[in-house]
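[agent] plan:
  1. take the single chain provided in the ticket
  2. run structure prediction with default settings
  3. attach structure tokens to the ticket
  4. add a short note for the reviewer (M.T.)
[agent] executing step 1
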Amino acid sequence: MDNSLAELGDRLRSLRARHGLTQEEFAQLAGIGYKFYQDIEGARKKEIWLSTVERLAAPYGLRAWQLLTPDMPEGSKVARKKVVSSRVHRK
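[agent] step 2 finished; step 3 output follows
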């Protein structure tokens, strides 16, 4: 398994947990399928497109390169508000 994809999965899991989201909630925010997201977070995908990384970064107010950087930022406060707001409006 490619170590960088495993690291990406770990970063995604950490960010998602910090924002209090389930995998299904985050997949919906990112506009990707739930099972597809599970495979990315679980490092079961052998490769993913840059456009997918951009979709994964956007709900957190990050750019793709920030999500791929080892010392990844937590995401902006504005993005946190968007994520929380999205959760409230779905209920």
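[agent] step 4 note for reviewer: The helical segments are 3-18, 23-30, 34-41, 50-57, 64-68, 77-90.
[agent] ticket updated
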